[in-house]
Specification:
The complex is a heterodimer of chains A (about 325) and B (about 325).
Chain A: H1 2-33, H2 40-48, H3 53-63, H4 69-81, E1 87-88, E2 93-94, H5 95-130, H6 135-149, H7 152-166, H8 184-222, H9 225-232, H10 237-274, H11 280-289, H12 293-321
Antiparallel strand pairs in A: 1-2
Helix pairs in contact in A: 1-12, 2-3, 5-6, 5-8, 5-10, 5-12, 6-8, 7-8, 7-10, 8-10, 9-10, 10-11, 10-12, 11-12
Chain B: E1 4-13, E2 16-26, E3 31-35, H1 42-50, E4 58-66, E5 69-70, H2 76-82, E6 87-90, H3 94-97, H4 104-115, H5 120-133, H6 139-142, H7 152-164, E7 170-174, H8 182-199, E8 202-207, H9 210-216, E9 219-224, E10 227-233, H10 234-239, H11 244-251, E11 304-306, E12 310-312, H12 315-320
Parallel strand pairs in B: 3-8, 3-9, 6-7, 7-8
Antiparallel strand pairs in B: 1-2, 1-4, 4-5, 9-10, 10-12, 11-12
Helix pairs in contact in B: 4-5, 5-7, 7-8
The chains are: A mainly alpha (about 325), B alpha/beta (about 325).
């Protein structure tokens, strides 16, 4: 019951904070994007190779790019109030449809990468802390240092070379086998196989971060008085570590993980490009190159929403992990 | 047979020896106070009994007999059967000795379910009884509280409830009231004493507060620099402390009724510091001792048994008292 009230408080607080935050982000993004030289009409004209001043003016008028800046912003906000993100001049379709097409695969990639990083990182960190200073700790420290210092895209490329090219175990491109027409388990297994390498590449850096953090905070917890209390009860060491130590050690790890969700979206641009993953990151990159501002604004809006939701989830997780953390 | 016999226990840390050949025993149902200043080895001695020393500490020699079983010879799984069931522990800081992220109900039931075959529900019912026993009001509603919802005194009561949950034969209380204010201190000690009688357990009370010792202990063992220098019943000890260190300790107490106040008179103290004897042979108290003789600085004086079941590690005092088994103390 107490938990329910805390969840309600957290939700209410997040809702109150979210609206002005998102609004601020949109206005700022909108204005910043206009600082970029060129617009969609320029890109389309240069790609077609034949363009006159008249046809470009027509394009601009068609996309509403000839309006004053403030009017454009007001139009955008007005549409947004009706949950309309506008129309993409580049893809010639509503931005909402475009994003909804890409969102699931990006979410799948991000959540899988983060979950993998957390699971592997926490497991590695716990092992390192349990054998601190001895050989399992030393070996894992080297592994962690490697993960920490290798850029994700390079890990991805090497993974492709090893697992796709040399060994031929896993596919290197896309999020499913095109035209395979699989059903049921075969389809799920096919998607998982496509997911493995990008998730590994995207998550490898974060594995290192979480492993180090878990190791440090597990070692910190060992010195606490309540650990001796738990030992004095005659509990098994494994139970003491899992029930008494790990839960205390997880609070800093989850805090950092929450902040990383935003980073992950940024990292996804590179990973999605390397693995030809049809996600939001690549959409954002293409939108920048095509000066497709309405698509880009849509992606940015969605990523800010994602970060807000992620923070909300972390707050709820914290409330569960550590009852001392009261919703502000 | 004594409930607990600690026989010539030595505990070493890298670079120094924290406890040197400490011997004492506790009878069933009695309270033995182990007193001494910070760093003299009280807590290390206590943790040795539970075999819960820091990982860099090593029990160098000695035996610890609990009801005739040498705890030092047990395997680690066997030792886990002893901890929490036969011997339990209350620590100094109630603020940090309970796990902040687990409910107190869970923390109490986990020790019950560890040592007794009880269902979750039965263990919870038992936990409520225990909270009642340690005089926590509204026990059934407190069970799902977390430590941060409770005051320091309440937390120490929860610690006590956990410690007595499986009716241990021996309760080790490591300065259980140092972190509490004076009124709460008296309540907690009163509770401990009451439980000791009701559950028939012995208490090893570690403290540096002689007032607490005078009121709550049956016997006392005084530690100085890792050695036990004097042992005996409370009444003879306070009536006539034998070891020069004990006399210094009692002399340093401030009796406000007798007009002893720093604004009126100079307070008495034991000159020097514990570190004075570092690296020296002989009695470690000798550099601060008013009655030390040259022999004191050559060999460590052994703990000599005296009448009245007292013992002291000071040859000068032993001679003054009329020899090891002299007819009467001076």
């Amino acid at each position: 019951m107490r938990m329910g009230r805390r969840v309600a408080t957290t939700l209410r607080r997040t809702a109150i904070h979210a609206v002005p935050t998102v609004l601020g982000i949109i206005v700022l993004d909108f204005l910043l994007l206009r600082l970029m030289p060129g617009d969609a009409a320029d890109v389309i004209a240069s790609e077609s190779g034949v363009a006159t001043a008249e046809s470009m003016a027509m394009l601009r008028q068609h996309f509403g790019l000839d309006q004053p800046l403030l009017t454009q912003l007001m139009n955008f906000l007005g549409h947004l109030a009706q949950f309309n993100l506008g129309f993409s001049p580049r893809y010639n379709m509503p931005v909402v449809d475009l994003i909804l097409q890409r969102l699931p695969s990006t979410l799948l990639l991000m959540v899988t990468a983060l979950a993998l990083a957390l699971i592997i990182g926490i497991a590695m960190g716990s092992v390192m802390a349990a054998w601190a200073g001895r050989w399992p700790d030393r070996i894992l420290s080297i592994v962690v240092l490697l993960f920490y210092s290798m850029p994700g895209f390079w890990v991805g490329l090497m993974a492709i070379v090893l697992f796709s090219v040399k060994l031929g175990w896993l596919p290197s491109d896309g999020d499913m086998t095109i035209g395979a027409d699989l059903g049921g388990w075969a389809s799920i297994s096919d998607r998982l196989q496509h997911l493995a390498l990008p998730a590994l590449a995207l998550g490898s850096f974060f594995v290192a971060v979480y492993a180090r953090l878990t190791r440090a905070s597990m070692l910190e917890v060992q010195r606490q008085d309540f650990m001796r209390t738990a030992q004095a009860k005659g509990l098994h060491p494994l139970l003491i570590q899992l029930r008494h130590a790990l839960r205390n050690a997880l609070v800093p790890v989850t805090t950092v993980a929450g902040m990383h969700l935003g980073n992950l979206l940024g990292g996804a641009v590179v990973t999605e490009t390397v693995f030809g993953w049809p996600g939001l990151g690549r959409l954002a990159l293409e939108a920048v190159l095509a000066r497709d501002f309405s698509t880009l604004l849509g992606v940015l809006l969605l990523s800010s929403l994602l970060v807000i939701v992620a923070n909300l989830l972390i707050d709820l997780l914290h409330a569960w992990l550590d009852p001392r953390i009261e919703p502000a | 047979m004594s409930l607990l016999t600690v026989d010539k226990l030595s505990v070493a840390f890298p670079g120094h020896v924290a406890v040197r050949e400490a011997s004492f025993s506790i009878e069933s149902g009695e309270t033995l106070a182990l007193v001494g200043e910070s760093g003299c080895g009280k807590s290390v001695t206590a943790f040795s009994v539970m075999r819960l020393l820091p990982s860099n500490a090593r029990i160098a020699s000695g035996r610890i007999l609990l009801e005739g079983t040498d705890l030092l010879s047990l395997s680690e799984p066997e030792m886990r059967e002893v901890r929490g069931a036969k011997v339990s522990l209350i620590q100094q800081e109630p603020m940090t000795s309970l796990n902040p992220v687990l409910s107190i109900g869970l923390q109490i039931t986990e020790v019950i379910r560890r040592h007794e075959k009880l269902s979750r529900r039965a263990a919870r019912a038992r936990a409520v009884e225990l909270l009642d026993l340690v005089r926590i009001p509204d026990a059934h509603r407190r069970l799902d509280d977390h430590p941060h919802n409770l005051s320091g005194g309440m937390r120490q009561r929860v610690m006590i409830a956990m410690a007595v949950a499986c009716r241990p034969r021996l309760l080790i209380a490591d300065e259980p009231t140092t972190a509490l204010d004076v009124t709460t201190q008296a309540q907690v000690l009163d509770l401990l004493d009451d439980l000791r009688r009701r559950l028939g357990m012995a208490v090893l009370l570690i403290t540096h507060d002689l007032g607490v010792v005078a009121q709550w202990a049956d016997r006392i063992a005084v530690m100085y620099a890792g050695r036990i220098v004097e042992q005996g019943g409370i009444e003879p000890f306070f009536a006539r402390p034998l070891h020069p260190y004990s006399r210094g300790l009692l002399g340093a107490r401030v009796d406000v009724d007798a007009d002893e106040h720093y604004s009126k008179n100079r307070l008495s103290e034991i000159p020097g510091s514990v570190g004075s004897a570092a690296g020296q042979a002989g009695c470690s108290f000798a550099p601060r001792c008013p009655v030390a003789e040259p022999a004191c600085r050559r060999a460590v004086p052994p703990l000599v048994a005296l009448p009245d079941e007292r013992a002291v590690a000071c040859p000068v005092t032993v001679v003054l008292a009329g020899g090891p088994h002299g007819a009467a103390l001076r």
